[in-house]
Amino acid sequence: MSDQTSQGLWQLSIDLPSERGANRQVTDELLNQLGAYGWQPADVFAVHLAVEEAIVNAIVHGNKLDASKKVHVECEVSADRVRVAITDEGPGFDPASVPDCTAEERLEAPSGRGVMLMRSFMTSIEYNAAGNAVMLEKVRGPADS
Amino acid sequence: MPTHKRIDVSKVGDVTVVKFVDRKILDEAGIQELGAELFSLVEHDNRRSILVSFDNVDFLSSAALGKLITLDRKVKSVQGRLKMCNIRPEILEVFQITKLNKVFDIRGEEAEAISAF
Predict the structure, then answer these.
(1) Which CATH superfamily is domain A2-139 in?
(2) Confidence (pTM)
(3) Domain map (residue ranges) of chain B
(4) Is A15:A82 a contact under the CB 8 Å cutoff?
């Protein structure tokens, strides 16, 4: 794990074990840094939610909670932009194949909302071709008046 | 009286008011416990008018939504009523984006929600 700051940028690079709760090793410090850079609560919530969903997906769906596999996370926080890249060691998936959780027949499904929430709360999300890595980006919103 | 770890339960008239102990509802084990405690209100305690207040809740992961959906289904299956209140704007946005605001009966403040039962 490494974290460093240079020229107003906080960075983190870490390998997480594929176990529930491991995401806290990223989210706790990430949220601290967003606060330190003066991000607004609404944006902090958005980043927290998206990163939480993405890391849990990598651990549970990507790596299938396999203790021999890691989830690699890289974060970058500045005053106006957050980038988080999450890579698992699974075979990947096709994000386009995730059913629409707002469709009538799926509205009350117990799960399947994570990717949609990531897309909704981040400025952009981009998967690699294999579908086992995702880049989340949030551009800071306007300050509260 | 049952002991709850994840929820605080009180009564206002006939309405069972449920509040969350945790400000951030996100870890899997905690969400499983939360679900069990919520469901027990219906299945074992025979509560039929339940108000879930998000008064203390700062964060909610999508895994918790499934428990709320199941709770709603259980309450409706016994002809009960479930309402929610005091939801901060960011969490309300989660319900709106996922269209769960069309499934749940969401109110504003607690007093307004209780009067709606």
Answers:
(1) Histidine kinase-like ATPase, C-terminal domain (3.30.565.10)
(2) 0.90
(3) 7-115
(4) no
A133 touches chain B (CB under 8 A): no
Question: ipTM of the predicted structure?
Answer: 0.89
Q: Is A115 within 8 Å of A98 (Cβ atoms)? A: yes
Domain B7-115 sits in which CATH superfamily?
Answer: STAS domain (3.30.750.24)
Average pLDDT estimate for B88-93: 96
Best of B22, B26, B38, B69 to disrupt the A interface (most A CBs within 10 Å) is B26
Give tens-digit pLDDT for B34-61: 999 999 999 999 999 999 999 989 999 9
**pLDDT under 50 in chain A at which residues?**
144-145
A130 has a chain B CB within 8 A of its CB: no
Which two tokens mark A143? Answer: 């300050």
Cβ atoms of B80 and B48 within 8 Å: the answer is yes
User: Which residues of chain A have a CB within 8 Å of the CB of B103?
Assistant: 107-108
